[in-house]
Design brief:
41% of the residues lie in helices and 14% in strands. The chain is elongated, with a radius of gyration of 25 Å. Bound molecules: iron/sulfur cluster.
């Protein structure tokens, strides 16, 4: 992860090459920038939400999430007053839920300590929960046009290629060098000749967004479009035909496989769900009960359920297998629908302690829909809904709790 920028150990003023980059990049950005909803505002709150959502997530995925979020919580105050379940529900599917929890905590801090006004000072922004050097730089440059540098994966790739930076961008020395470069570049906008385009001179917001845009659309990790790049004439990697060398490849850690059995337990008019305890993975989210299978252990759903809950289910259907990766884990989640006699409910409730839940409930179909679940459990919920067969023989349309069980 990029470190906080420190005061430059090299000359802090922009050099000719940084000026040349600013002169080539700014007009390109003005002509080609995508019309994204968060680019139509200078509200620091709206920009902050977009920047956090865009971490690890593609633009096309973020757009509807950002729009729903801004509709639900148009101001910091509205967000600070919201219940955490509602905040997590609007984040459902984006993953890395600590981002949503930090946004919520930061909103409360802004309301209580800054009079509900988003701070304008870079150092104060940096102190808010979940805001690191990149996000603080993005908010301060885009919303306030401050000469604050940014450095994310896209920007690192462009800088490493244009200046042929040989080191590992995650090492302390190279990372500090890149922050210095990003700082000088954002200051270089002051050198943009105002007679050509007055709006671009000193436009720190456009410069930083131009780097993000170039990294996302042109200077991509594989097959960069050098022939249509505005920096082609100044790019050292391109000039020396060594684009593939930059940035230096980081050795990937081998992914560890993990397998989970997850059970949508249906009994009478309810489905049993629980809420993850604070402080752990997926804190505050709701989920179906489940069990992780030890490495090499054969998987037999009915036996796994029995082993975990101490109860033999009266019916069991396979629903869906979900594969996804989180950090260094490659996860397979196998979802099943289980029917349980009413008399066995209390036996099942006794197993809550094993699940890392702070609370558990039997909920109807409507409540289940409204609860925030992790991405894998949310897909299993959708598969369960689809698998339910109504009294008229139609699938997935009725309140699933009122429907027949196939198992
Ligand atoms: S010329 Fe190619 S390698 Fe250099 S910045 Fe442009 S797209 Fe990236």
């Amino acid at each position: 992860m990029p470190r906080a920028p420190r005061r430059s150990s090299v000359n802090d003023s922009a050099t000719a090459s940084e000026k040349a980059v600013a002169i080539a990049l700014l007009p390109w950005f003005v002509l080609t920038a995508r019309d994204l909803p968060w680019r139509r505002t200078q509200d620091p709150y709206a920009i902050w939400i977009s920047e956090i959502m865009l971490q690890q997530t593609q633009v096309k995925t973020v757009i509807p999430y950002w729009q729903r979020w801004m509709e639900a919580f148009p101001t910091v105050e509205a967000l600070a007053s919201a219940r955490s379940d509602r905040v997590l529900k609007l984040w459902e599917g984006l993953g890395y839920y600590s981002r949503a929890r930090n946004i919520h905590r930061a909103a409360v801090e802004i309301r209580d300590q800054h009079d509900a006004r988003f701070p304008t000072d870079h150092a104060t922004v940096l102190e808010l929960p979940g805001i690191g050097p990149y996000t603080a730089g993005a908010i301060c440059s885009i919303a306030y046009n401050q000469p604050a540098p940014i450095l994310d994966g896209n920007v690192i790739r462009v800088l490493c290629r244009v200046w042929a930076v040989p080191g590992d961008p995650r090492s302390g020395k190279t990372n500090a060098l890149l922050w210095d470069l990003a700082t000088r570049l954002v200051k270089a906008t002051q050198l943009f000749p105002p007679q050509h385009a007055p709006a671009l001179a000193g436009n720190c917001s456009a410069l930083n967004q131009a780097f993000m845009e170039l990294g996302a659309l042109v200077c991509t990790p594989r097959d960069p479009a050098c022939s249509s790049c505005p920096l082609q004439a100044v790019c050292k990697a391109h000039r020396t035909r060594r684009v593939a060398r930059y940035p230096r490849a980081v050795k990937r850690v081998k992914a560890t496989p993990r397998r989970f059995q997850v059970f949508v337990v249906q009994s009478g008019d309810g489905v049993w769900v629980g809420r993850r305890v604070d402080g752990g993975a997926n804190a505050g989210l709701w989920e179906f009960p489940g069990v992780e299978l030890a490495e090499g252990m054969p998987s037999e759903p009915a036996e796994d359920f029995l082993r975990w809950a101490g109860i033999r289910p009266t019916g069991l259907d396979a629903l869906l297998e979900v594969k996804h990766s989180i950090t260094r884990f490659r996860i397979l989640t196998m979802g099943h629908r289980v029917h349980l006699a009413l008399t066995l409910r209390t036996r099942l409730e006794g197993a809550q302690i094993l699940l890392g839940w702070s609370e558990a409930r039997w909920v109807n179909g409507e409540t289940l829909e409204a609860l925030p679940l992790s991405a894998a459990h949310s897909r299993i919920r959708a598969a369960w809904r689809e698998a339910c067969v109504g009294p008229d023989g139609r699938k997935g349309r009725q309140d699933p709790i009122q429907t027949r069980f196939r198992g």
